[in-house]
Amino acid sequence: MSKVINATALDFDSVVLGSDLPVLVDFWAPWCGPCQMMGPVLDQISDELAGQLNIVKMNVDDPDNTALSEKYEIMGIPNMKLFKGGQVVKDFVGFRPKNHLLGELQNELNG
Amino acid sequence: MDNNSNSEIYDSVIIGTGPAGFTASIYASRYKLNTIVVGKLLGGLASESHKICNYPSEKEITGMELTNKMVEAAENQGAKIVMGEVFSVAKVGDIFVVTGTEGETWHAKTILIASGTEHRKLNIPREQELTGRGVSYCATCDAMFYKKATVAVVGGSDAALTAALYLSEIAEKVYLIYRGDELRGDPTWAEQVKMKPNVEILYSTNVIELVGDLKLESIKIDRPYNDTMELAVKGLFVEIGSEPRVKAYEAIGLTYDREGYIEVGKDQSTAVPGVWAAGDITDGSNGFRQIITAASEGAIAAESIFKHLKIGPAGLEVFP
């Protein structure tokens, strides 16, 4: 059961910046094939890292979110950013297989 | 969609979820073959097309929409589709063992390789570091991040021309940089590109270096344009063709043409008994790699696999 949260600019502050847990934000769009490939990967990781990490999806095609994707200088998707204490500590650009992303995230979470 | 690998022995594992794989799956389902389709990206490279106007029955459709229709059509016939990347294929006795990068395995009497091609890279300094930070291989995915910006497209084929057209609607200015002296894509697209006031075409020019620390700032070219060898751009879209994705099949002894595509016969069979190939990854269809020709090869391969499994060598039906 996926624990991925769909957020928008309206709840970004509370869901991402104000989160006690680290948050991985996936900037994606419905017309992006590689983003569609990331979907199931993030669903699985949200289960495996439940309690350690929240995963939030942000649809950049939603006009409400344009300013946010500009603020975080999104220039290509999929683009995932890891937030800790409201700050970006790492970004992941482009599709990644599950084990690859899981390993990178565990390094960051345990580091 | 299915997510599990198991010990079932399929009639065929179809590797690839693009037009060739889905068409093969549709035909195989109609022939009552027990197959599974394994792929990394639904629709493959076709899913990234911004606009498709040469597929019968579709006046104009995006790659993603056409992909969704193919998935629906294949599933309607009973296709089992698994998302995953194939790491290796081996033959153990009479059975092929397909292993995925996440450790999944599938077993089958035959294999159909339809895993297509991947984007060719420029292989120039800072390309990897700036990918997703100004360098893109998918205009459909990333064009919207370059509103009112100056961007460049590299290439002269259909993919480059349609990318330039799409970007011309979003960006302020588009440089189309091509190493040849004449655009080689569909003349209809070429004509439209030439008529766009905000597209400048640089012929006989190569991009040789990318400049930018955290994001792309400019590109260096090997032939002066308006007295400069460096163009300030926020985005660079690389559309210089693709290369066959064949690494996973090294162990089974396929043969390849000079460019690395899998050699196939008229029935899409390969040099390895029990292995067929279809779509962009083959040297078939006179080298004309299109959605329609991939679909055609997929259909031929499925029929050939059906004959191989169900009809004996003398042409007599072994199984009713």
What does this structure look like?
The complex is a heterodimer of chains A (111) and B (320). With 111 residues, chain A is α/β, with parallel strands linked by helices. Chain A is 37% helix and 25% strand. Chain A has a 5-stranded mixed sheet. In chain A, strand 2 (23-28), helix 2 and strand 3 (54-59) form a beta-alpha-beta unit. Chain B has 320 residues and is α/β, with parallel strands linked by helices. Chain B folds into 2 domains: 9-119 and 242-310, FAD/NAD(P)-binding domain; 135-238, FAD/NAD(P)-binding domain (3-Layer(bba) Sandwich), CATH 3.50.50. Chain B has 6 helices and 17 strands. In chain B, strands 1, 2, 3, 4, 5, 6 and 17 form a 7-stranded mixed sheet that branches. Chain B has a 5-stranded parallel sheet with strand order 8-15-9-10-11. In chain B, strand 13 and strand 14 (228-232) form a beta hairpin. The two termini of chain B are 30 Å apart. The mean pLDDT of chain B is 93. The chains are: A alpha/beta (111), B alpha/beta (320). The A-B interface holds A 29-37, 40, 60-61, 69, 73-77, 79, 93-94, 97-99 and B 3, 40-43, 47-48, 62-64, 67, 83, 85, 101-102, 131-136, 138, 140-142, 144-146, 215, 234-235.
List keywords for this structure.
heterodimer, A: 111 residues, alpha/beta, Glutaredoxin, 5-stranded mixed β-sheet, 4 helices, 5 strands, 37% helix, 25% strand, B: 320 residues, FAD/NAD(P)-binding domain, 2 domains, 7-stranded mixed β-sheet, 6 helices, 17 strands, elongated
